[in-house]
Specification:
Blueprint: E1 7-11, H1 15-24, E2 29-33, H2 36-45, E3 47-51, E4 56-59, E5 66-67, E6 76-81, H3 88-96, E7 104-107, H4 114-121, E8 126-131, E9 136-140, E10 143-146, E11 152-155, H5 161-169, E12 174-177, H6 180-191, H7 193-200, H8 204-208, H9 211-230, H10 246-250, H11 254-264, H12 274-281, H13 291-300, H14 306-321, H15 328-341
Length: 347
């Protein structure tokens, strides 16, 4: 059966899943699978999608096919997985007994290990790595705003080729990549800011306009680059600047950074990190699969990553005790203390 006659299921339909699925729904039958709280919200308010270019899509509650049962994936020929990394293993087990024999699975998730987990549980299916480069901010009441740029990326494979036109027609062009591990590593470097943004309690653009916060991110990225290098992973170049240059750009004076950053990354004033959203809503975060991934890779090489380990600790503490707003200088000092106080081997 070709893509034109097939159904798409989005599993784990939160902000990213609903945004992608909402636009795809203009070109195909898309079924969103997610939690009751999201279903109830969309049943009352519908779905409104906007972006930085002024595009707007409004879907009424009757036009949104949102269910909570995983049984809904049985007829889907394309399954997009957008659950948080903490839920990947469980979702993979549920999919194993429900997927259509011809279904193709694409993981649009943060972190480095989700595709491996899905492939282990779904050996009879093609499972492809994907990457979402843009930020989607939930403004409440079913209103989702795309607050940064970039195109979706999916691992190069012939089975996905029939779907590319459908994505493009929906305004979601997909770049085919043969180097997805390197792409995911590059996205990981950018996502290291999620924890810092959450701890700052500021919109992303405002946070990144403050040099003290950028120095914190540079510290975390420099440590991560060393761990990736020791692990034999070379991040892909996703922006005009090579990843190894990121820490140098981040430490530039505010005026210079603002001029240079405009050429590299466009961010809407509304944008917030998903970690900030999760903490604000009292939900588990993905910090263990972002900053924590750097720590895990370091440990596998008998190395230490104290800066990223400290960021994990701070976000976890915010989840337990309630968010604490960190100034850039206070966070910088805390991270430097973690770095300087750790005597273990580092890359």
């Amino acid at each position: 059966m070709g893509a034109s006659a097939s159904e798409i299921a989005v599993v784990g339909a939160g902000s990213i899943g609903c945004y992608i699925g909402g636009w795809l729904g203009t070109q195909a039958h898309v079924r969103l699978v997610g939690r009751e709280r999201v279903r109830d919200m969309l049943a009352e308010h519908g779905l409104e999608l906007t972006d930085m270019q002024g595009q707007r899509l409004r879907r009424t509650p009757q036009e949104v096919d949102f269910v909570t049962s995983m049984d809904a994936v049985r007829e889907a020929r394309l399954v997009l997985v957008t659950v948080k990394s903490i839920d990947t293993a469980e979702v993979a087990r549920e999919l194993a007994s429900r997927l259509h024999p011809q279904a193709v699975v694409v993981s649009f998730q943060n972190g480095l290990r989700n595709v491996e987990l899905l492939r282990q549980q779904l050996p009879g299916h093609v499972v492809l790595a994907g990457m979402v480069p843009f930020n989607v901010f939930h403004r409440g009441l079913g209103r989702l705003h795309r607050a940064s740029g970039g195109e979706l990326m999916v691992e190069a494979h012939p089975v996905f080729d029939p779907w590319r036109a459908r994505f493009a027609e929906a305004g979601l062009p997909v770049e085919s990549r043969a180097d997805m591990p390197a792409v995911q590593a590059a996205k990981l470097l950018l996502n290291l800011n999620n924890a810092i943004n959450a701890l700052s309690n500021l919109p992303l653009r405002e946070e990144l306009s403050i040099r003290a916060y950028r120095r914190c991110l540079a510290l975390a990225q420099r440590e991560a680059l060393g761990v990736l290098r020791a692990s034999g992973i070379r991040p892909a170049r996703l922006t005009p600047l090579p990843p190894r240059w990121f820490p140098f750009l981040l430490q530039a004076p505010d005026a210079l950074f603002t001029r240079l950053a405009q050429r590299v990354l466009a961010i809407d004033p509304l944008a917030r990190s998903s970690t900030w959203e999760d903490l604000a809503a009292g939900r588990p975060t993905e910090v263990d699969y972002i900053n924590g991934e750097v720590v895990r890779l370091a440990q596998a090489r008998h190395l230490r990553a104290p800066v990223n380990a400290r960021l994990v600790e701070l976000v976890q503490a915010a989840g337990r005790e309630g968010p604490r707003v960190w100034s850039g200088e206070a966070l910088w000092q805390a991270l430097c203390e973690a770095r300087d106080g750790d005597r273990g081997p580092r890359p």
